[in-house]
Specification:
The protein has about 475 residues and is of the alpha/beta class. It is about 35% helix and about 25% strand. The radius of gyration is 26 Å and the shape is elongated. The relative contact order is 0.08.
């Protein structure tokens, strides 16, 4: 029991600091080969060093008679936690560094608050290798123990969304040329969480290469991570960023990919999906509204019974079912809009993100949000004008087919990685903006019954090129 309580406290402490300790093996296998030929050319720095596992293993490649000299001239390590600083010093001593020398170059400091400017006066150019703290702004706001970090996101940092972004922007402002960062993969794949930061940061840095892990790396978090190798541009410029990447999947399967990150699409991976959404958006799309809210029910009381699940009441692996009484107008609106969106992969193939029928999947009329709206809950969609049931079924089939085509084509890179699991595929999150944009490519107003039947046949035949031709023909009609 005592061990369980200690484990809970340790996890809460790690979470409050955004700390995920890095394995020494990650450094040796994935990072060291990139730097092994230039060890004497740089000042090796980790401003969020933990136990020092991203820098200290360099010493294994330095001869014993040169090791202390190398440490003095080429290594500086910092951490905000006193116990980590102590462990880091002990680790340095294990590499043969005297205690007094280790204390000189391993320091206690909060480097999110400010960059240690004296490092810029070092004899050698700085090379920063780090696994920074990551903690999403939404989490920081909601928890008392993390609200102390809110000041980091004010002023010139307004709009950034994670502690790792504060660390990286500090390096940019301090003109550090070479960076190797272990990051949440939402740096590459995320939308709102990363858009502004990528625009700001990649104006100044190129990505030399990236290793994306779709396997579990850290013991205490399900966050998917990547290792990014950056080099500062000679001149800031908003231009396409091109680099080679490697994805490491379950069972250590390696997939090589070429990435093209375009400024027009906020440097987000998988922009071919965004290009499709832009090119095939119809002139008069269905208007989309999300959520059946508690206030909708309170403002439209009546005598008509409707059945709903409560998205905020999930117990024993199912949502609580309620019978509500509403007026004629709201009943018609709820019953006529039978689609919902699942925004997060469940891990099973029949539970992947996409549109579904409320009546089929939940055996009710609607999906109520009795409390806060969460993007990860099933969300009822309301259309304007209201589409018929058959039209909504066709939209569902079209939407899910196109989504799966791009997931296959782009290895789901246009979606945000949700979190690590033991599923056969990497779980992803579909943004509500993406949902709306994909619905807006559905040529609702341009299809008679014959064309609707034709589109349904093309979906069943699973020929995406024919569907593109169909969409283009519908769009040409409106010009």
């Amino acid at each position: 029991m005592e061990n369980n309580i200690k484990s809970i406290k340790d996890n809460k402490h790690r979470r409050s600091l955004g700390v995920h300790l890095t394995s020494r093996d990650i450094f040796i296998k994935y990072i060291f080969p990139e730097i092994q030929d230039k060890l004497w050319d740089y000042q090796w720095v980790d401003l969020y060093a933990g136990e020092g596992n991203l820098i200290l293993p360099i010493l294994n490649s330095i001869s014993l008679d040169n090791r202390v000299h190398f440490f003095k001239e080429h290594i500086y390590l910092y951490d905000i936690q006193p116990d980590m600083v102590k462990k880091c010093i002990l680790n340095a001593e294990n590499y043969g560094i005297p205690s007094d020398v280790a204390h000189q170059n391993i320091k206690l400091r909060d480097n999110l608050e400010s960059f240690p400017k004296f490092l810029n006066k070092a004899q050698f150019p700085l090379y920063h290798i780090t696994n920074p703290p990551y903690l999403y702004l939404g989490y920081i706001r909601k928890h008392k123990e993390t609200q102390k970090y809110l000041d980091f996101f004010k002023g010139k940092n307004d709009g950034y969304q994670d502690l790792y972004q504060i660390a990286m922007i500090n390096d940019l402002r301090s003109n550090i040329e070479y960076l190797i960062y272990i990051l949440p993969s939402n740096f590459l794949f995320g939308a709102s969480v990363s858009n502004k930061f990528r625009i700001d940061f990649l104006k100044y840095y190129n990505i030399r290469r990236m290793i994306v892990f779709e396997t579990k790396v850290f013991e205490f978090t399900g966050t998917n991570i990547c290792i990014a190798f950056f080099i500062k541009k000679k001149e800031p410029k908003a231009e396409m960023v091109e680099f080679k990447g490697i994805k490491i999947k379950n069972n250590n399967i390696l997939v090589e990919k070429k990435y093209l990150l375009k400024p027009k699409f906020k440097y987000r991976a998988g922009s071919e999906f965004d290009e499709f959404l832009e090119e095939y958006r119809v002139r008069k799309p269905l208007k989309v509204h999300y959520y059946l809210l508690k206030e909708d029910i309170l403002q439209n009381k009546g005598r008509n019974d409707i059945s709903v699940i409560d998205a905020n009441d999930y117990q024993n692996n199912k949502y609580n079912t309620l019978i509500l009484q509403v007026n004629n107008n709201l009943k018609k609106r709820i019953v006529s809009n039978t689609l919902y969106v699942r925004t997060v992969d469940t891990g099973s193939y029949d539970g992947r993100v996409g549109l579904g029928l409320i009546s089929k999947d939940f055996n009710v009329n609607g999906i109520l949000v009795s409390g806060n709206t969460y993007r990860t809950h099933p969300i009822q969609i309301f259309f304007e004008p209201i589409a018929t049931l058959n039209e909504q079924k066709l939209l569902r089939n079209y939407f899910n087919f196109v989504l799966e085509v791009f997931r296959e084509k782009l290895d789901s890179d246009f979606l945000t990685t949700y979190k690590y699991s033991d599923a056969d595929y990497t779980r992803k999150y579909l943004g509500l903006t993406q949902v709306r944009s994909l619905i807006q490519t559905f040529p609702y107003s341009k299809m008679n019954e014959e064309l609707k039947e034709k589109l349904n046949e093309l979906i069943n035949k699973k020929n995406f090129n024919d569907i593109l031709d169909f969409l283009k023909a519908c769009k040409d009609k409106s010009n």
